[in-house]
């Protein structure tokens, strides 16, 4: 008895309203504890209190596919079939977003095509966040406008097959539905009016400038412009020539500096090379003389020590002038040598 549809309920799409939910899902709802304890004896008035307690939406979840409280309350609405005014109040409720989503879901299942578009399309402007339980039992975050778009564009939601409806443009062509009006249309109209006013202001300003210039003498304006342009070009040429001369002078100075630095660098390199050669030759001679003994020096000269002494004695004798070819001079040199005087050099 608790699972029977209200006798006063009307058939939806030619069938029992509860049959809009698949039999296997309907059986799981009937066996659920929430359905038995919380949904028993609910009426259209007390159903609102239960809907206000919802904190998420969803279909079935878990390994045994348990239904969510949201799905149980939707099933209860199909069973008792509340009046259309109550469902519309559910949808227009701004304080409780889950009540709004539940009313939209019920209207999508049972309402006619024109009412579905008329009452659900304004909910595209509701961007509040809602929690949704996924089939694996985890919660995901979504938004009210996303849920509404799913109801209007898909054939399956919360494990329930949603009845098909006509396309919007078909209803508009039949005259059953007015053309959709965007909530931003008023803003667009204001922007268009503002753009038109700005365009009118620009045109008026352009016309005023045209009248102002029309009253001036064109010949005098051309002469003034010619003088101004000639002075500007003359100043520009003078500045360009002055900058060119300055750059040329700087370039010549830089060239001179580079040549001077190059000459100094070459001179330093030559002096450094000469010093290195001289130092190497001195070191080589010093090393050769230090490595040779006095006897080796005498042996290299080819004279023994005694012969060298004799030669020195002969040189000394020859130096005193006593061996002069002229006998008188030789005699005089001997006398001077005995007296310690220098020999005569004739």
Number of helical stretches of at least 4 residues: 14
Question: CA-to-CA gap between the ends?
Answer: 172 Å
Which sequence of SSEs, written as H and E, runs from N to C?
Answer: HHHEEEHHHHEEHEEHHHHHH
Helix content, binned percent: 55-70%
Beta-strand proportion: 5-15%
Uncertain segments are none
Mean pLDDT: 79
Question: Which structural class fits the helix and strand makeup?
Answer: mainly alpha
Shape estimate = elongated
Q: How are the strands ordered across the major sheet?
A: 1-4-5
Biggest β-sheet strands, sense, barrel: 3 strands, mixed
The total beta strand count reads 7
Structure description:
By secondary structure, this protein is mainly alpha-helical. 64% of the residues lie in helices and 6% in strands. The chain contains 14 helices and 7 strands. Strands 1-4-5 form a 3-stranded mixed β-sheet. Strands 2-3 form a two-stranded antiparallel sheet. A two-stranded antiparallel ribbon has the order 6-7. The mean pLDDT is 79.
Throw out a few tags for this protein.
346 residues; mainly alpha; three-stranded mixed sheet; two-stranded antiparallel sheet; 7 strands
Summarize the SSE layout with pairings.
Blueprint: H1 23-31, H2 33-38, H3 44-52, E1 57-58, E2 60-61, E3 66-67, H4 69-80, H5 84-92, H6 97-110, H7 113-120, E4 129-133, E5 139-143, H8 144-153, E6 156-157, E7 160-161, H9 168-174, H10 185-214, H11 218-291, H12 294-301, H13 305-319, H14 327-338
Parallel strand pairs: 1-4
Antiparallel strand pairs: 2-3, 4-5, 6-7
Helix pairs in contact: 3-4, 4-6, 5-6, 6-8
């Amino acid at each position: 008895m608790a699972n029977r549809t209200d006798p006063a309920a009307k058939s939806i799409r030619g069938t029992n309203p509860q049959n809009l939910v698949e039999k296997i899902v309907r059986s799981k709802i009937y066996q659920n504890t929430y359905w038995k304890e919380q949904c028993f004896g609910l009426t259209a008035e007390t159903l609102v209190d239960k809907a206000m307690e919802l904190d998420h939406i969803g279909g079935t979840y878990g390994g045994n596919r348990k239904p969510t409280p949201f799905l149980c309350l939707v099933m209860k609405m199909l069973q008792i079939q509340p009046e259309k005014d109550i469902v519309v109040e559910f949808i227009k409720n701004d304080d409780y977003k889950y009540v709004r989503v539940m009313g939209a879901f019920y209207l999508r299942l049972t309402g006619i095509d024109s009412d579905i578009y008329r009452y659900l399309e304004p909910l595209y402007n509701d961007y509040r966040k809602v929690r949704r339980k996924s089939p694996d039992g985890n919660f995901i975050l979504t938004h009210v406008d996303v849920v509404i778009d799913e109801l209007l564009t898909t054939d399956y939601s919360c494990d329930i097959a949603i009845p098909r409806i006509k396309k919007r443009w078909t209803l508009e062509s039949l005259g059953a539905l007015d053309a959709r009006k965007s909530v931003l249309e008023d803003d667009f109209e204001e922007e268009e009016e503002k753009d038109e006013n700005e365009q009118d202001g620009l045109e008026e300003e352009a016309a005023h400038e045209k009248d102002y210039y029309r009253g001036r003498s064109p010949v005098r304006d051309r002469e003034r412009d010619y003088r101004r342009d000639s002075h500007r070009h003359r100043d520009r040429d003078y500045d360009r020539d002055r900058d060119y001369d300055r750059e040329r002078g700087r370039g010549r100075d830089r060239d001179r500096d580079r040549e001077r630095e190059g000459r100094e660098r070459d001179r330093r390199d030559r002096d450094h090379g000469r010093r290195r050669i001289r130092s190497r030759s001195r070191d080589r001679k010093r090393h050769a003389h230090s490595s040779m003994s006095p006897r080796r020096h005498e042996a290299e000269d080819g004279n023994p020590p005694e012969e060298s002494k004799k030669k020195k004695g002969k040189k000394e004798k020859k130096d005193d002038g006593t061996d002069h070819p002229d006998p008188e001079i030789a005699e005089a040199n001997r006398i001077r040598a005995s007296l310690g005087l220098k020999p005569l050099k004739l």
